[in-house]
Design a protein that fits this description.
Helix content: 25-40%
CATH topology of one domain: Rossmann fold
Radius of gyration: 18 Å
Shape: globular
Number of helices: 8
Strand order of the largest sheet: 6-9-10-3-11-12
CATH class of one domain: Alpha Beta
Number of strands: 12
CATH superfamily of one domain: P-loop containing nucleotide triphosphate hydrolases
C-alpha cells in the first residue's frame, strides 16, 4: 500500500471539470515527477491533495497512510505528514521565518516545542541546507527574491519533515542558482529523512538536478503516460504535441 493513494479522482472548479479520473501512488522514499502542458490539471491536483476548498471532488478518493482524507481539512492533512510547496509563496510582513517555523511545528504537537529544542532543530536544518542563520530573522517572504522564497519553503520542509511533499511548479521563474538550491534541498531531505516527493513541473530542467524514480504525464485532466526517468528525455525531445498525438481523439 502506498502512503498517498489517489483513485479515480474527478475534480470540478467553478462548474468546470478539471480532473477526469486520476490514479496515482506516491510513497515515502520515492520521487515522482508530474509533467504536462499548461491547463492539463497539474496544479489542480496539487491543491486538491492538500484540500483547497475551491476544488470540489465529485468522484474518487484520496487516501494517506491508510486513512481516507478526501474530505479532510487542509490542517489535518498537514498534521498527517503532507506538505505543499506553493508556486507563489505568500509574504507575511512582521512574522520572522524563525517564528513562523515555530508556529508551524507547534500546530503538529500537543505541547509547544521548548526554546532549546527549537533552536537545536533549526540549527540542524540551517546546517543541513547550508542556509545563513541570519536568513531566519527576516520577515517571511517579505521582499524575498524568487530563490529566497523557495529557500524558505525548503527550510520549512526540513523543520516539519513531512512524509510526502508536493512541489507545485516550484521551479517556475527560477534562475539556475535558485533552481539548484531547491533541488539540493529536496535531494538532501530525501536522503536524510526518506521524504517522498511529487515534483510538478512543465519542464525537464529541474529533473536534471532531482532524479525521479517515476514520471507521469498529464493531459486534459488525466495521467496518460507513465515511466522512468527516460520519459522526461523523450518529452524534452518530442514535446507535448507528441503526447497529444498519441492520446487525443482523432477527428472523424
Amino acid at each position: 500500500m502506498a502512503d498517498l493513494e489517489i483513485r479515480n479522482l474527478h475534480v470540478r472548479v467553478e462548474d468546470r471539470d478539471i480532473l477526469k479520473g486520476v490514479d496515482l501512488d506516491v510513497s515515502k522514499g520515492e520521487i515522482h515527477a508530474l509533467m504536462g502542458p499548461n491547463g492539463s490539471g497539474k496544479s489542480t491536483l496539487a491543491s486538491t491533495i492538500m484540500g483547497h476548498p475551491s476544488y470540489e471532488v465529485t468522484e474518487g478518493t484520496i487516501t494517506f497512510r491508510g486513512e481516507d482524507i478526501t474530505e479532510a481539512d487542509p490542517e489535518d492533512r498537514a498534521h498527517a505528514g503532507l506538505f505543499l510547496a506553493f508556486q507563489y509563496p505568500v509574504a507575511i510582513p512582521g512574522v520572522s521565518v524563525a517564528n513562523f517555523l515555530r508556529m508551524a511545528i507547534n500546530t503538529r504537537r500537543e505541547d509547544p516545542i521548548n526554546v532549546k529544542d527549537f533552536r537545536t532543530r533549526l540549527q540542524h536544518a540551517v546546517d543541513l541546507l547550508d542556509v545563513d542563520r541570519s536568513f531566519t530573522s527576516r520577515h517571511l517572504n517579505d521582499g524575498f527574491s524568487g530563490g529566497e522564497k523557495k529557500r524558505a519553503e525548503i527550510l520549512q520542509m526540513a523543520m516539519l519533515r513531512p512524509e510526502v511533499a508536493v512541489l507545485d511548479e516550484t521551479d517556475s521563474g527560477l534562475d539556475i542558482d535558485a533552481l539548484r538550491t531547491v533541488a539540493e534541498g529536496v535531494n538532501t531531505l530525501h536522503e536524510e529523512t526518506g521524504m517522498g516527493a511529487l515534483v510538478i513541473t512543465h519542464y525537464q530542467r529541474i529533473l536534471s538536478h532531482i532524479e525521479p524514480d517515476f514520471i507521469h504525464i498529464m493531459l486534459d485532466g488525466r495521467i496518460v503516460e507513465e515511466g522512468g526517468a527516460e520519459l522526461a528525455n523523450e518529452l524534452e525531445q518530442m514535446g507535448y504535441d507528441w503526447v497529444r498525438e498519441r492520446h487525443e481523439p482523432k477527428a472523424a
